[in-house]
Amino acid sequence: MDAMRDKVLKLAKEKNAIILAHYYQTPDIQEIADFKGDSLALAQYAAETDADIILFAGVHFMGETAKILNPKRKVLIPDMNAGCSLAESCPKEDFAKFKAQYPDHIVISYINCSAEIKTLSDVICTSGNAVQIVESYPKDQKIIFAPDKNLGRYINEVTGREMVLWDGSCEVHDILSSEKIMQMKVDNPDAILIAHPECPQPVLILADFVGSTTAMLNYTKNSDAKKFIVATETGILHQMQKDSPDKEFLIVPADESCSCNDCAYMKLNTMEKIYLALKNEKPEIILPEQIMKDAKAPLVRMLELST
Ligand code: 13P
Ligand code: SF4
Q1: Containing H/E element for 299?
Q2: Which domain range does residue 194 map to?
């Protein structure tokens, strides 16, 4: 395994490639990354890099975002099948029909969507800046929010808006059960519950803190508490534990039969696939020119509003 890691690092250097990794990647991949982050930080980093190759250890829409924001770079992903249930829950034709029903609404889309959905959007957001992006519009602005109904409902609650929501969700966060969490709280009365806003409302109601991946990492790092129940994807625990070796983190399991809560798409990536992608310079993210152009405007708008 170490030999493979060394081969990856050597090849990346030879090819002037940078490796970006989302916090949901396995620890070995996080550890070789030149930069790791949540969706917002990764998009910001990808937009600025002058490396010849961006190897994106994440999922497909993240690779697309990197390509759209920095089209001169060759963008590789380790596995073309690393999709996202949330992005897939919003097909372009269906969304175009939905949008047509609300001609006086603007569209704010969560970055977890396809490049085609981005072309139909006025601005993109991530979980890290969603409230800020929505709040940048006047209170009476009519808004469609897509594709995550849980994040959209949460933003409606926080901002007092009534955005129209597309009915999509993340298959990892949407199945976290409030019953299981209540039992964990009973068993661990000293633990703080933190949750990602992609979780459904019954989970968020119970949470002491709701925030994006980076917000949760910062929260646990800075908190005086010693024990946390973590309602999001398992990969986050690696950085959490690194930041706070003296604290205890209990992941909310997806169901009774498993002790983890992994995103199957994120976990398709392996060290060996990263090596092969760098060696063969594929799978490569390639998008039609017009889609790149039309999807770029709402992404750039997000970056401008996030500074
Ligand atoms: P963030 O990285 O914005 O917290 O999003 C989590 C996620 O589900 C990424 O796919
Ligand atoms: Fe998509 Fe959910 Fe996996 Fe994130 S965790 S990539 S939103 S399926």
Answers
A1: helix 289-305
A2: 178-251
Residue 260 lies in a domain: no
Q: Is residue 117 part of a domain?
A: yes
Instruction: Provide the residue type at 249 as one letter.
Output: F
Could you tell me the CA-to-CA distances from 188 to 116, 182, 215 in Å, in that order?
44, 10, 23
> What's the number of domains the chain is made of?
3
Ligand 2 pocket test, candidate residues 149, 260, 263, most atoms within 8 A of CB: 263
State the closest ligand 1 atom to the C-alpha of 215, by its place in the atom list counted from 1: 4
pTM for the full model? 0.96
pLDDT tens sequence across 278-294: 999 999 999 999 999 99
213 is in an annotated binding site: yes
Whether ipTM > 0.85 holds is yes
| 237 and 272 housed in the same domain | no
Whether residue 196 is contained in a domain is answered as yes
pLDDT band at 254 (very low <50, low <70, confident <90, very high): confident
The predicted-structure confidence for 200-222, as pLDDT tens digits, reads as follows: 999 999 999 999 999 999 999 99
CATH number where 12 lies: 3.40.50.10800
CB-based contact 88:97 (threshold 8 Å): no
